[in-house]
Amino acid sequence: MAKDIIVLTPNGRRQIVHCTPDTIILQVLEDACMKQGFQPTDYDLKHHNHILDLTTTIRFSNLPNKATLEMVETERRRLESNVTVGLLLEEGERRTADFPPNTSLYDLVTSLAPSEYSSLPHPTILYMRQEVVGETALRNKTLRQLGLISGRAVLRLLNKSEEGRQANVSAVYRRPLSEKPDIKEQNIEARTTNLHQFNDDSSEPGPSDIRKNVDYTKFDPIEHIKIVKKEAVLEKEKSTEEVQYEESINTKPAIEETKMDIDHKNNDENITGTSNTSLITQENLERCLKIEEEVTFIGTQKAIAFMQPDDTEDELEDLPNDFYDLTIEEVRKLYHDLQQHRLELENTPLITANKREENIKQTSQQKLLMYKNAVVRVQFPDRMILQGIFSPNDTIEDVINFVKTYLQTPDKPFHIFTTPLKEVLDPTTTLFNAKFVPCVHMHFKWSDDNNGEPYLKAEVYLKKTTSDAAGILASKYRAPCRRKLEDSSDSSLKSLRDQPSTSKHSKVPKWFK
Predict the structure, then answer these.
(1) How many CB atoms are closer than 10 A to CB 142?
(2) For bias kind Basic residues, which ranges apply (predicted)?
(3) Which CATH architecture has domain 3-73?
């Protein structure tokens, strides 16, 4: 259904643009600018204080007939760039390339899939709900006319005849399936043939004893199907029992020998596997217990210094860009988490501000009981990391003073910050309020330019610790303590002791107490 859109131009005139449901908003803007002499890259279209997306069509823009749009100046001049097009073939293969917006669909298809295009009698390009059928339509249609002037898009190459196409109808296209006989249809046909045969031969008695008792004057197809199933089950049971008896006689000794061999192998593998795992876990436990003897402390707060390993940086640099793209399963999981969070918010009862503050204080107290240490790491530009153990109530100023004691020039101004979204830390805030419990990774930077001098003292570089030992030490001190569990168990014991003991609750006699 065609629509008329009224565009208010900056010169105070009204321009009527005739549109179809597949007309894009960009085409409306270009038509209005061409008739009134404006540059379309400098303007946007606004409808009820809402800037319209120029790449959408009239069908999906929710614009009524005779809708009034206003041309407003853009904050930035709109620049066109190459469009990354992914062409999806019927076999499921996707071919990707970059094209300018003025590229025709015929040139796009012939460059990405020339052999597949030549094999299709009626080539069709499907984008959103827009269908371009036939070679002439593909030559006349460009990416710009589809609303693609930048970004990415997926086009689908199909085979569809022009005669069977309906206007403004979105058809669902699926991959052609291989022709295989339907098992259900075969079973239905076999049952119907059996029923017809039974009706034809109903005057004659059946071979089995079960059929002799059936009243053939009143035929019931359901009863007949049950009888046939029972006979088939009985015949199968007889045949399987005979085959199993013959096979058991011939293969019984061989099966016993193979079972013995498999049992011996499984026992050997289980013994070796359990011994290896037990050795590994025992070594790790012994190393965690004696880790303080392995590291070299350089000062207070259990301070150690170690060099960042090169493997992590190499791994991060070698990762392709596709590694950071979300998969379908990850998007589903994120959507599921959002739904669960929304349901939790809807089902939670309304509470007052005082109650909310009490809950926040309670959770903070539980976290303070759970973590008694905070592992702080400060990384320097030369990849040296300084690690220290602090209390959750220590402030950022304590960390700054801790770093000053190991600097080559402690009087020189510097600042520490966290990433991502670089944030300079306030010295008065505590580690717990800054959410740096149980661990935090900070970065060091001079306030002025560095002249190539070493950041830390020479003693620190000489007393370096290995990175794996530093990681084990950090995991030891940032682990949650059991003080919270002990307190909860003590409180439960006290509540049990405070309860009045009656004869109903306890069956212990009084003289025994």
Answers:
(1) 19
(2) 504-513
(3) Roll (3.10)
Strands laid side by side in the 43-46 sheet: 14-19, 3-8, 68-73, 43-46
* Better-scored residue on pLDDT, 315 or 234: 234
Which strands form 94-99's sheet, in the order they lie side by side? 94-99, 83-88, 151-159, 123-127, 130-133
CB distance 472 to 290 below 8 Å: no
Query: Where are the domains positioned within the chain?
Result: 3-73, 83-159, 212-274, 294-319+361-490
Beta strands in 112-222 (DSSP E): 123-127, 130-133, 151-159
> Of 382, 389, 506, whose CA–CA distance to 446 is shortest?
382
Mean pLDDT value of segment 112-133: 85
Residue 454 to residue 460: CA distance in whole angstroms: 11
Could you tell me if 53 and 128 are in contact, meaning their C-beta atoms sit under 8 angstroms apart?
no
The DSSP result for 312-329, as a single string, is: HHHHHHH--GGGGSPPHH
Contact 392, 431 (CB under 8 A): yes
Does the domain formed by 294-319+361-490 have CATH 3.10.20.90? yes
The Cα 256–Cα 245 span in angstroms is 16
Q: How far apart are CA 318 and CA 339, in angstroms?
A: 35
CATH architecture of 83-159: Roll (3.10)
pLDDT of residue 505: 47
Give the whole-number percent of the chain exceeding pLDDT 90.
11
Which two tokens mark 28?
């409306």
Q: Which tokens is 415 given?
A: 């600042």
